[in-house]
Amino acid sequence: MNSIKDSVIQKIIRSFPALKELASVSAFEVPKNPEFGDTALPCFRFSAVLKKPPVAVAEELKKIFRDDTSFESVENTGGYLNFKYSRKAFAESVLSDINDGSVFERLKEEGSGKTMVIDYSSLNIAKEPHIGHLRSTIIGNSIYRIYDFLGWKVIRINHLGDWGTQFGKLIYAFISWGDEKELGKNPVRYLQDLYVRFHKEEENDPSLSSAARDWFVKLENGDPEARKLWQRFKDYTIEGIKKTYDRIDVSFDFYRGEGYYESGAKDVIKMVEASPVSKISEGALVIDLEEYGMPPCIVRKSDGATIYSTRDLAAAIDRHNEFGFDKMIYVTELKQQLHFSQVFKSLELLGYDWIKKAEHIGFGSILGISTRKGNVIYLEDIFDEAKSRVLDIMKDRDIDETQKDIIADKIGIGAVIFQDLSRSRVKNIEFDWERVLSFDGETGPYLQYSYVRIVNIIQKSSAVINGMPDFSLLTDDVTYELIKTMSYFESKIRSAYNEHEPSVMASYLINLAKEFNRFYRVNRIIGEENDVSESRIFLLIALESLYRRCLQILNIPVIDKM
RNA sequence: GCACCAUUAGCUCAGUUGGAUAGAGCAACGGAUUUCUAAUCCGUAGGUCAGAGGUUCGAGCCCUCUAUGGUGUACCA
Q1: Minimum CA–C1' distance nucleotide for A297
Q2: Which residue is nearest to nucleotide B20 (CA to C1')?
Q3: A47 compared with A343, residue with greater pLDDT
Q4: What is the CATH T-level fold of the domain A3-85, as seen in this structure?
Q5: pLDDT at A249 over 90
Q6: Is A130 a catalytic site residue?
Q7: Range(s) for CATH 3.30.1360.70 in chain A?
Q8: Which residues numbered 26-45 in chain A sit less than 7 A from strand B, measured from CB?
Q9: Which phi and psi angles does A280 have, rounded to 5°?
Q10: How many Å from the CA of A454 to C1' of B31?
Q11: Pick from A17, A51, A243, A376: most CB atoms within 10 A?
Q12: Across A141-161, average pLDDT
C-alpha cells in the first residue's frame, strides 16, 4: 500500500539528491481537509537544505509529477505538496494487495526469526478475577496478537501470584476460620472472602500480621501443612480462572507462578551475596540504587524470606536462559513502574546486559474497586450482566435459542473488552456500569454489527469474481474514502506495535466501520448490475479479511449473525 | 519532601515524528427505514486544548514554572 508513496520518494531523490536524508514515506501526512488531497508532503523541512522558501520548493517538486498517471493532480498549497490519487489505480493497488494476501505476508516478515516473551494477566491465587484484572489480560493478549501478526514467535507466560506473605494470611485464615464444606462449593470466592475477613480482623488485632508472616516463612521452608494447603488453593484457582480465559479466548504457553522460581530465587540470593553491588541494610540483603534515585532493591528480607523482587530477578534470568528472547515485555499496572525499574537496573548492575531488551508496559488502574475492602466487581458477573442485556435486545430476533445464547455471550464480551481497549493504556478508568453496558455508538457491538453486515452481503450475493473486477466502478466519493481508510491498516498496526498500544487498532477499526456504514447506506451491492456488484463484492472481500484481523487483534469475538 | 502519570466540548475520550479550519461517541434537538440486519446513517448545537512563560517559519503536542487529580516512595504484589 506504500508503493505509490515509495515511487514518489524515489522520484524526488532522483531529482534532488540533497533530500536523501529527509524524504521518506513517513514524511507524508494525511491532509486535515480531504479537499486538499489524499496525501500531502509538507516541504517546510526541505527548504533549509535546498535554501529556498517552502512554497518555491513545493513548486519545484510539483514539476516532477507533471506526467505521472498515478495521480489525478499534484498541487502546491502554501508549501504543502498535495497529491490526489487516480482513484482507479489506487483502488486496484490497495484491494489487490489485500486480496492476494501480500500485505499480510509483508507484515509477517518483519518479526520473522525473532522471539518475544510476554508476561501478562498474572492473576492472584485465591482471588476471583475482577474488572481490574481484565486490563492486563486484554492489553497483554492484544500485544501478543500484534507481535504474532508481525511474525514474531511469542512465549506467553502467566506469572501467577502464588507466593508471598498473602499466602501466609490465607493459610492462617483458613486454619483459623476455614470450613471444608464451604470451600468445596465455590473455592475461589470462598478463599477470597477469607482474605477479606483477615484484613478486617487484622485492623482490630495487629498480631495477625506477624502470624501471617510466620506462615509464609513456614511455606518457604517447606512445612508440609503449609505446602499442602498452598497447593490446594492453587489447583482450585487455576481450574477456576481457566474457565474465564476460555470464555474470552485467552490462553498461555506457560502458567508459572512465583512459586515456580523458588529455587531460582535462592540461587539469586547466593549470587547477589557474592556480588560487590550488594550490601546488608537494616538486616536485609539489598542492591543499593541510591545513585540512580531509587530505593534499594530488596533481595532477601530481614526475616530471611524472599520478596517479589527476588522472584522477578530469578524469573528474568530463567526466561533468558530458556528462551534467549529478543524482547521481553511485562504488562502490569503503572504503579509497578518503580519496581520494574529497580529490577531492571539491578540486573544491569549484576552484569546481565540482555535486560536492556526488557520493557515494562504499564497501564492505568480501574478506580473505585479494591479486593481488600471487598467492594469488588467480578469479571464473570460483568460478562453475565452484559449478556443478559444483549439477550433482551435480541429477544425478537429469529435465531435458534442455543445459538442466540452463544452469540449474546460474545456480544457482551465484545462490549466489555472494547470499552477497555479503546482508551489509551496509561489512563485511569473510573468503573461505570452504564458505560460498560452501552451498545450504541463507538462500542464493541457496533464493530460486530458492522462486521455481520459485511459478511451477510458477501454470503447473499450471487456475484462471481473472475479475475479482476472493473476498478473504475469503485471511484465514487464514499467508496474512495472507505478504500483510503483500508489503506491505513499497515501504518496503524506498525504504530500499535511501536507504542504497544492496542487502542490505536481500536480507533482504527471504529473508523473503518464508520466508513463502511456510510458506504453501505449509499451503495447497494445485491441487485445492482453485474459488473458493479462484482467490483463492490471484490471490495467487501478485502474489507472482510482486513476487518476480521482487526477484531482478532483486539480480542473481540468474531460473529456472523446478531 | 521527591519521583512517575494524567488534565482537550455538559459527560467519556481521539488527536501518529511539531504542520493547513482541534475531531468522535454519549447526552440534547431535527431528519432518513415497506432495509444487502436502524445495535445504522445524515444534520444542528456545543472549545480560552488546566494556567503562565519559553523554543521557531509554525505548539494541543517540545522545554520551564504553577495549579488540580491519581500513583509510587525498602522488607505487600
Answers
A1: B74
A2: A32
A3: A343
A4: Gyrase A; domain 2 (3.30.1360)
A5: yes
A6: yes
A7: 3-85
A8: 26-27, 29-33, 35-37, 40, 42, 44-45
A9: -95, 130
A10: 26
A11: A376
A12: 96
Q: If you ran DSSP here, which 8-state letter would residue A549 be given? A: H
Region of A249 please: left (phi>0), alpha (psi -120 to 50) or beta.
left
Which residue is closest to B73 in terms of CA–C1' distance? A295
Told to judge if A266 belongs to the known catalytic residues of this protein, a careful annotator would answer: no
Which of A5, A11, A51, A127 is catalytic? The answer is A127
Q: How far apart are CA A221 and CA A262, in angstroms?
A: 11
Mean pLDDT of A436-441: 93
Residues of chain A with CATH 1.10.730.10: 379-554
Is the pLDDT assigned to residue A368 strictly greater than 70?
A: no
Q: Which nucleotide is nearest to A445 (CA to C1')?
A: B39
Report pLDDT digits (tens) over A460-470: 998 777 789 99
If you average pLDDT over each of A38-47, A162-171, A445-454, A523-532, which comes out highest?
Answer: A445-454
Most trustworthy range by pLDDT among A60-69, A127-136, A489-498: A489-498
| A251-254 contact pairs (CB < 8 A, 24+) | A251/A156, A252/A121, A252/A156, A252/A157, A252/A158, A253/A155, A253/A156, A253/A157, A254/A155, A254/A156, A254/A157, A254/A158
Q: How far is CA A156 from CA A29, A127, A144, A251, in A?
A: 36, 21, 8, 8
- Output the distance from A560 CA to B43 C1' rounded to whole Å: 31
User: Cα–Cα distance between A126 and A189 in angstroms, integer?
Assistant: 7
Q: State ipTM.
A: 0.95
Which nucleotide, over all strands, has the C1' atom closest to the CA of A301? B75
**Assigned CATH topology for domain A379-554:** Isoleucyl-tRNA Synthetase; Domain 1 (1.10.730)
Q: Write out pLDDT tens, residues A253-303.
A: 999 989 899 899 999 999 999 999 999 999 999 999 999 989 999 999 998
